[in-house]
């Protein structure tokens, strides 16, 4: 579904990613691991088109998206929950959700019930401003906003960062339900190794902007963790 080939990307004069290659298959949850500052968020922004690739390609469902704008990628079926959530603070919860429909196929005018059902507590918050929500509530909002357009690929950049344990459990359950209910693929950046292992099917580890290791859950042993993930 998603194929990143020899991707190079960065900020200004700085090259952060070097020859990164990875794949995400339909219905698969792929976790991107690595210490702070190795390029995980840079990769997510590059896949979404928020950063232009300096080399390599980003392909989705066989189509080359490397030069496509973020809006076009979203309309092609890629949903994005960014690090920090990026909720529109002055808009209501419902208005934030409606923005997610901009990428929907056809002429959707209402947030799908199946999206809201992932975090039903949001229904009682429709009239509240996004900026008045707690961090956990904002993360739920960002998640449902991304699901509103029924994406086939969901990019999740540290969805559990700074979130209370009860909502972390909810997010884990939602990811598992997405995997069991559909062919939606997930690319997840997560600092919590335990969380990543509880939802992931395949893992890539970045080191200094390059893929240093890849493998399935059984291969993610103590030696790999000690070498690439232990601080």
Automatic annotation (TrEMBL):
Gene Ontology MF: a single term: ATP hydrolysis activity
CDD domains: ABC_TM1139_LivF_branched
Residues in the signal sequence: none
Single GO BP term: L-amino acid transport
Sequence ranges assigned to domain ABC transporter in this UniProt record: 2-231
Pfam families the UniProt entry points to: ABC_tran
Keywords in alphabetical order: Amino-acid transport, ATP-binding, Nucleotide-binding, Transport
Cross-referenced InterPro entries: AAA+_ATPase (IPR003593), ABC_transporter-like_ATP-bd (IPR003439), ABC_transptr_urea_ATP-bd_UrtE (IPR017780), BCAA_Transport_ATP-bd_LivF (IPR052156), P-loop_NTPase (IPR027417)
Family: Belongs to the ABC transporter superfamily.
Name this polypeptide is given: Urea ABC transporter ATP-binding subunit UrtE
Organism: Paenibacillus arenilitoris
């Amino acid at each position: 579904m998603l194929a990143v080939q020899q991707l190079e990307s960065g900020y200004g004069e700085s090259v952060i990613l070097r020859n990164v290659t990875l794949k995400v298959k339909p219905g698969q949850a792929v976790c991107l691991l690595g210490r702070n500052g190795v390029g995980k968020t840079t990769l997510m922004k590059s896949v979404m088109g928020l950063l232009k690739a300096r080399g390599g390609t980003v392909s989705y469902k066989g189509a080359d998206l490397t030069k496509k704008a973020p809006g076009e990628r979203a309309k092609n079926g890629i949903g994005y929950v960014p690090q920090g959530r990026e909720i529109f603070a002055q808009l209501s919860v419902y208005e934030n959700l409606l923005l997610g429909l901009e990428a929907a196929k056809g002429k959707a005018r209402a947030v799908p019930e199946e999206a809201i059902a992932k975090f039903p507590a949001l229904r009682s918050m429709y009239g509240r401003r996004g900026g008045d929500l707690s961090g956990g509530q904002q993360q739920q909002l960002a998640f449902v906003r991304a699901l509103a357009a029924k994406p086939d690929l969901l990019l999740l950049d540290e969805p559990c960062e700074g979130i209370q344990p009860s909502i972390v459990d909810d997010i884990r359950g939602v990811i598992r339900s997405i995997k069991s209910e559909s062919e939606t693929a997930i690319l997840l950046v997560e600092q919590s190794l335990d969380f990543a292992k509880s939802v992931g099917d395949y893992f890539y580890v970045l080191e200094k902007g390059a893929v240093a290791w890849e493998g399935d859950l059984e291969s993610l042993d103590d030696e790999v963790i000690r070498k690439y993930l232990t601080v």
